[in-house]
Amino acid sequence: MNFGDAIQICFRKYATFSGRATRAEFWWWALFIIIALMALSIVNPKLAAAFNVATLLPYFAVTARRLHDTDRSGWWQLVGFIPLVGWIVLVIWLCQQGKEPNRFGA
User: Fold this and answer.
1) Apex CA 49: angle with CA 9 and CA 92, to 5°?
2) How far apart (Å, rounded) are the C-alpha atoms in residues 78 and 87?
3) Is 63:80 a contact under the CB 8 Å cutoff?
């Protein structure tokens, strides 16, 4: 999967919390969000804020699908709200290889 494919898939599955997402799909999407927010914040901070709000739901959706690929519930992304330790654990889970077979499908 390349950068463009990952962006298209994430926008196509805008609010799809079921299924699975590969590591490449998730990390290309995260890179796109970071680059776009940096560029938009230079151009116009209000535009960056609007983009951030518009891409928040697909970000949560692709994170849930990524956690499904590691055979965890999408609700585990709430661990990220635990100060310091939570987001470290979440990043480790998001970096793990997908598990076959698992309860969330192929």
Assistant:
1) 55
2) 9
3) no
In order along its 106 residues, the chain shows pLDDT tens digits of 899 999 999 999 999 999 999 999 999 999 999 999 999 999 999 999 999 999 999 999 999 999 999 999 999 999 999 999 999 999 999 999 988 888 877 6
The b-or-e profile of 31-62 (16+ CB within 10 A means b, else e) is ebbeeebeebeeeeeeebeebeeebeebbebb
Place of tokens 């077979």: 101
Q: Domain locations in the chain?
A: 3-95
